[in-house]
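Hey L., structure's done. Input below.
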Amino acid sequence: MITRTLTAALAAAGMSFAAASPALAQAGAGAGAQGQAQGQMQVEPIDNSELTDAQVEAFIEAATSIQAVIAEYQPQLQAAESQEDAAALQQEAQGQLVIAVEEAGLTASQYQRIAAAAQTDEEVAARLQAEAQSQSESGR
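Output:
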C-alpha cells in the first residue's frame, strides 16, 4: 500500500496540470498522449533542504487523494464511447486532481517539484516513503 501510494504520487506528479494526467491520458487516449503530456513538463526539483515536514505530509495526503481520483476516472475513460467523451472526462478528472493537491495544502507547482525531487534525490524519496509509512500506520 505504501509503495503503491508513493508510486501513484510520482506518476500523478508527472502530469502537467495544464494537460491530462498521464495515467488518465493513457486510459482514455493511449500511450501517445501519455508521452506527450509528460514531454510538456519541465519542473525543477525542490532541494531537500528547502522541503519542509509539512510539505512532505501534504504531498503524501495529496498522493492518496490523487490515487482515488485516478481509480475513479480510469474505468470511465476506458469505457468512453468517443474521443469527445474521453476529453470531457479527462478535463473533469484534471480538475479533481488539482483540487486534491490544493486541499492537501500544496500548489500544483509545489507538488510537481516535490515529485521531481523524489525521482532524483534519494533523501527526498526516503522522507516521502517514511511519511507514507507513518500515515499508513496512523490510518490517515
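The two ends are 12 Å apart (CA to CA). Residues 20 and 91 are 7 Å apart (CA to CA).

-- N.
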